[in-house]
Task: inverse folding
């Protein structure tokens, strides 16, 4: 089975590194990173990853806007929102826009992998 | 009632009677403004009647005779379907006050005063205003119609659905895992998943509540109209993260088919109809029992954490599984106990319309109080501490904030002044705004006043911002009125209000536009018993900070700006937040540069605290600090971690403020 290709979007290097470490232990390969919504959309078009982790509050363009643009470009995009506690309404807005699911910071590696596996399994079974 | 010892019912009698009295006050004030008084009169009658009945059972004759008179007066208007005039409203309010006085005597175990004059006065009015056929002993006429229960059944109940639309109705019950950090968002994903399979007719919590993140329960029920097979629906839900269980049943006959009822109406009905929403049976529990219960659950939490630490990572799977199961049970129990402790803000604010009305009248002002969001629930322990600050704020608003009528008219304002109390949920906190449309706060005048009182040095006054100047009213000894007025300015001041709110782990913010409004914003924790904290470390020592106050954690790096003179700033959301190292705040020594910045919200300001390590995120039981530790003003409590290590909980915004001011 080929590795799943991941795009990591977050404005904090710390968070990007942490998420990259999480995926380094799995059957994944982080193929790109983006530090804001604008970069996220560009990188997505360029890389067409299997999975995108998306921060919500970022400079220039929010994760929600980026999610909408990516889904407009690719309806099958699998985007998992990385929200902070208390951003429920933003998460729901992203889910409304078509994001697959969410994880809440601060998270443990297994929180992320659990959600990712479930989401990918559901996508695989659904289509 | 001979032979039965009624004394054990006394506490219950007091509590229920208080509720009835508070409802009576609220309704009587509402009556003055209402255009449809008859249903309100109905309700007033029921409350008076309930008090009378209970007092009779307890053998409290003085209460019975006063309540009887009050009930009779109301009964006359009720029978004739007449609106109640202002004089009668005043009289009945005095009757209510009398009953409160008598109830106070019961509470303090003093002899109950008879209040003969009041009883007589109300009796005389009765004779004067009685409609045809009324008698002083009107109770006989009143009793048969006075059973409250049937009246409540007027609450809208949907008729059974006549036609069956495509698909069949199913009841979907979903429980999410105890670890799920964001139940509202998780239920929203469940909702979206179900909506993709059919039509969600109704849900508990309602979709509006979910969208507003007003969800605390771990379980939800959705009425779904769908052609999909139950097994398919169940499998789809089980495939979602953080789902503990998902059960799909054909919608039972037990609950009325909700298809004809718009979900919003169904969800809001109980709040609007007051008592009409009482569907399930309830039982009353003494608050001290609840307090013990939460303490015990808290200890269970700590013990479980300790067990977890003792169980080695390579322990048998069975042991681990048992421990996990125990954790889930304890969390469930915690959630249930917390739910029981949650009390709607209404229990506090219901008496405020009366309070504001009386205050305003005594000052010759006309003030309308509007209360929004009073269905929002807070821990009783929080609620108990809010009355004093709220009442003081309302008094200030009526007395100082709102101008005399002539001045209002001169400024082109409405004659009737307005005060608004609005509560809303925001993350782990409740926001309560108390706002008046009075003269507002004049920053320059406040500064001058503080200078005159010697509370401020001229040098300090120059550098105070507009907003900082408003906070001068929170200085001990500050009063804007030259002389102490009868209404406010006595007892607690704004300094006490602020201290009380901060003592609860909340914050106070003040906003004002001179001539337009004054707005006090209280941010309050939902609960004080069990909170989420971030563990942070400085110079090898670990402290806890309530997560509710943390906006973000940032690595100190490219976003950090080192200013001249050693000051450090963090660029955050297009603003610069000053960074103060925790080791400096607490004078811990050491010289290591912090690696992380914990960004905090203090009112509208952002401040950042530099720490060496962020240890993690825990759910902890707050233990109050006893004397003398509670004199450490930067610590709001303590907690014990699973390994038995005690940790102090920091009131960081306060500590930072003190540090920046120094």
Result:
């Amino acid at each position: 089975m080929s590795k799943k290709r991941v795009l990591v979007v977050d404005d904090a290097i710390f968070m990007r590194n942490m998420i990259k470490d999480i995926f380094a232990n799995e059957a994944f390969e982080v193929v790109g990173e983006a530090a804001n919504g604008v970069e996220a959309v560009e990188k997505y078009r360029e890389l067409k990853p299997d999975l995108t982790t998306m921060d919500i509050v970022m400079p220039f363009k929010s994760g929600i806007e980026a999610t909408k643009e990516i889904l407009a470009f690719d309806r099958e995009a699998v985007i998992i929102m990385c929200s902070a506690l208390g951003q429920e309404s933003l998460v729901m807005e992203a889910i409304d826009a078509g994001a697959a699911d969410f994880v809440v910071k601060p998270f443990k590696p297994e929180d992320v992998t659990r959600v990712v596996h479930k989401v990918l399994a559901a996508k695989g079974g659904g289509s | 009632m001979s032979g039965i010892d009624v004394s054990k019912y006394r506490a219950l009698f007091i509590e229920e009677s208080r509720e009835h009295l508070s409802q009576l006050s609220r309704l009587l004030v509402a009556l003055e403004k209402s255009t449809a008084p008859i249903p309100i009169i109905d309700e007033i009658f029921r409350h008076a009647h309930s008090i009378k009945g209970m007092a009779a059972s307890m053998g409290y004759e003085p209460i019975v005779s006063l309540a009887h008179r009050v009930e009779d007066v109301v009964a006359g208007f009720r029978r004739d379907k007449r609106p109640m005039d202002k004089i009668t409203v005043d009289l009945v309010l005095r009757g209510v006050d009398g009953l409160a006085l008598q109830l106070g005597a019961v509470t303090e175990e003093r002899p109950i005063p008879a209040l003969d004059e009041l009883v007589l006065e109300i009796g005389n009015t009765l004779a004067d205003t009685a409609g045809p056929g009324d008698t002083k002993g009107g109770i006989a006429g009143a009793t048969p119609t006075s059973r409250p229960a049937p009246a409540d059944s007027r609450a809208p109940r949907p008729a059974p659905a006549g036609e069956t639309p495509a698909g069949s109705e199913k009841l979907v019950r979903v429980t999410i895992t105890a670890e799920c950090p964001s139940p509202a968002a998780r239920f929203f994903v469940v909702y979206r998943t179900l909506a993709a399979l059919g039509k969600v007719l109704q849900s508990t919590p309602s979709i509006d509540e979910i969208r507003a993140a007003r969800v605390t329960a771990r379980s939800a029920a959705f009425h779904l109209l769908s052609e999909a097979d139950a097994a398919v629906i169940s499998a789809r839900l089980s495939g979602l993260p953080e789902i503990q269980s998902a059960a799909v049943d054909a919608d039972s006959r037990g609950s009325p088919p909700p298809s004809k009822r718009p979900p919003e109406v169904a969800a809001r009905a109980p709040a609007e109809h007051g008592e009409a929403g009482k569907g399930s049976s309830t039982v009353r529990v003494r608050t001290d029992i609840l307090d013990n219960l939460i303490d015990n659950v808290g200890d269970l939490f700590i013990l479980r954490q300790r067990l977890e630490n003792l169980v080695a990572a390579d322990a048998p799977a069975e042991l681990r599984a048992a421990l996990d199961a125990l954790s889930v049970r304890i969390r469930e129990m915690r959630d249930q106990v917390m739910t029981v402790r949650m009390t709607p803000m209404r229990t506090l604010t219901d008496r405020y319309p009366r309070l504001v009305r009386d205050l305003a009248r005594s000052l010759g002002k006309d003030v309308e109080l509007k209360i929004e969001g009073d269905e929002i629930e807070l821990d009783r322990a929080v609620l108990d501490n809010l009355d004093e600050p709220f009442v003081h704020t309302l008094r200030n608003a009526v007395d100082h904030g709102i101008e005399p009528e002539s001045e209002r008219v001169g400024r082109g304002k409405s004659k009737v002044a307005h005060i608004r109390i609005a509560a809303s949920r925001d993350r782990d906190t409740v926001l309560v705004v108390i706002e008046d449309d009075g003269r507002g706060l004049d920053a320059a005048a406040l500064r001058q006043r503080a200078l005159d009182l010697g509370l401020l040095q001229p040098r300090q006054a120059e550098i105070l911002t507009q907003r900082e100047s408003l906070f001068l009213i929170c200085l001990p000894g500050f009063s804007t009125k030259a002389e102490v007025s009868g209404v406010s300015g006595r007892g607690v001041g704004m300094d006490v209000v602020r201290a009380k709110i901060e003592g609860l782990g909340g914050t106070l913010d003040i906003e004002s536009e001179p001539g337009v409004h004054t707005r006090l914003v209280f941010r309050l924790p939902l609960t004080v018993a069990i909170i989420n904290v971030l563990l942070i470390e400085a110079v090898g020592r670990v402290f806890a900070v309530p997560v509710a106050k943390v906006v973000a954690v940032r690595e100190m790096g490219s976003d950090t700006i080192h200013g001249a003179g050693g000051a450090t700033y963090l660029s955050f959301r297009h603003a610069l937040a000053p960074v103060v190292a925790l080791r400096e705040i607490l004078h811990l020594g050491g010289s290591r540069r912090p690696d992380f910045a914990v960004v905090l919200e203090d009112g509208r300001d952002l401040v950042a605290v530099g720490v060496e390590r962020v240890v993690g995120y825990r759910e902890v039981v707050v233990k109050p600090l006893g004397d003398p530790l509670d004199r450490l003003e930067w610590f709001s409590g303590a907690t014990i971690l699973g390994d038995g290590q005690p940790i102090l909980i920091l009131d960081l915004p306060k500590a930072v403020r003190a540090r920046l001011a120094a």
Notes: Chain B touches chain A through 32 residues (CB under 8 Å). The first helix of chain B runs from residue 10 to 33.
